[in-house]
Design brief:
Number of strands of chain B: 0
Keywords (chain A): Membrane, Transmembrane, Transmembrane helix
Oligomer: heterodimer
Strand order of the largest sheet of chain A: 4-3-2-1-5-6-7-8
Pfam family, one (chain A): PepSY_TM
Radius of gyration of chain B: 16 Å
Structural class of chain B: mainly alpha
Structural class of chain A: alpha+beta
Protein name (chain A): Membrane protein, putative
Number of helices of chain B: 3
Radius of gyration of chain A: 27 Å
Amino acid sequence: MNGSLRQSMAWLHTWSGLLLGWLLVAVFVTGTSAYYREEISLWMEPELHQSVRSDDTVDLAWQTLGRIAADARSWDISLPDARNPAVQLRWQPAGEEQPRQGGGRNRGEQVWMDAGSGEVLTPRETRGGHFLYRFHFELYGVPRLWARWLICIATMFMLVAIISGVITHKKLFKDFFTFRPGKGQRSWLDAHNASAVLALPFHFMITYSGLLLFMVMLMPWGIDAAYDGDRRAFFDEAFPRSTETPGPAGGPADMVAIGPLAAATAARFERPVSRIEVQHPNRENARIRISVEQDVTISGRRRGGSPTQVFQGSSGGLLETIEPREAPAPLMGKVYNVMTNLHLVRFADPVVRLLFFFSGLAGSAMVATGMLLWVSKRTQQLRRQQPGAALKLVNGLNMASITGLLAAIGAYFAANRLLPPALAERSSWEIRVFFLVWLASLVHGLLRPHRRGWIEQLAVITVLWLALPFVDMATTNSHLFSAAAWRLGALAGFDLICLLLGALWGYTLWRVAKPKQDKRKPARAREPALAEGNA
Amino acid sequence: MSQLKNATRLSVASRTIAAMLGGYALSAAATAALSLGLPMPRVDAVITASVLSFLIYGVAVIWAFACATTARAWAGIAIPALLCGALVWLLGPAS
């Protein structure tokens, strides 16, 4: 451990990065996909694609719920928006509320409805983008608490790797403008530095805010000290909420037509209605809450507070108008809100979302090239000896975590299109395909020698991702050459991003498969050689 | 790190424990102390302290590996942690 600060930091950077790097690649990649989890889910449910909102949509939703859930305890209608074409109808059936398995609020029953025709749609069973989003912070099939702790520990390693990486580099910006392709270890180092510096503020923000999202789980000691262990009291003070528990249902009574009420609310706030909630529908004490889309401020509270009007259901009388207001927050509360809102991209600006998506890709590339650098450096130090078991293992794990994961995600999307729509346990089968492909890539990565293995896996993901838009074309009516895909944007965007990423994997394949240049004498094995930026 | 001597190995292991466990203890104690001691409303103090906790943890980890000697690495983490612990004990609810 002797030596300069930069040397010890380079050592720390290498090992904090490597130890949980495989997990971090998966967290980064699935997290990047989660920016578009709604779009992915939509793409994976082609049965919803032909739905188009009209002036009758609200009335149709009202009639449909009146038909299929007349005596429910509550209704909840989510109307179409830019990211979702169909209407989501949810209701709590009459009777006692059953706590949901696995915690969380019971969301009751739900169906999709075509916004134009009012018919109930039954999309193929899929977990959609939600599976990748959940995997991002709690993996799959392991106890939730353990998985979350494991990922948070990896995130802390990431934070340490970022700080030590910055300290290691005295020439951060010079390194950023240095790229020497086709030089083995040098190129990986340059790529690692470029992708790191390119989006450094993003990487820091995303890592730190990831920890903040689990602040109460990871660091409850401040709350416990100040509130004497009463966490509920802290939550009530920190995130005050009006929790009115609805009383018992009154006697039966007809409700007024919803159309005029929705039109009134839309006119009042000058925006289309986005959500309608009803307590005790078809009863004397029915209450209708109509909300419009809210402009999300970046430092604002994370939930609730949409502009809303509340009506008495049987008379149609206006009970209350709730204006958008921002809850006052102390400076650090605002910092917390800004960081977590940034992490979750809780604002709908498509340009910013796309920039975040590319920053996420840069982050994934940063972690991946860091792992490759570790192997590349040690391979060069071998000087023609055979690589040992440890190096082979790391290389195989690298392959599985990088190209293998990309193959698994591509296969997950392909399975969504190719499995029979009526297959039992369909969504589980999609996930099984994901894991089986991932496992196959691990086995392959451990069995195939270094460069050949990479070339084969890169070839597989190039073909797979480039094929996805064509599979889409063969199996749906909402592909790149259809009106539906462009009307929604999300669908065309999905296919275009598949083509773009497929081209990117293809370019990488071409670079890796090119015949090697003259074998340079390996660089002097200096400890640590990571930070040596001089060619 | 191919030719680690035993002494270096021991130092690395010791610093790793100081960083991971000591760092967590320090940030937990500091968060509790700040939550009790910051001159602002209770809920703001708790959020401020908790938001800063990961920064404290990160700095502690860097400290553990940046110090010239293992003893100094430990001292720089243990002493502030004990001071914060004492503060929590002084400011905390009289139970």
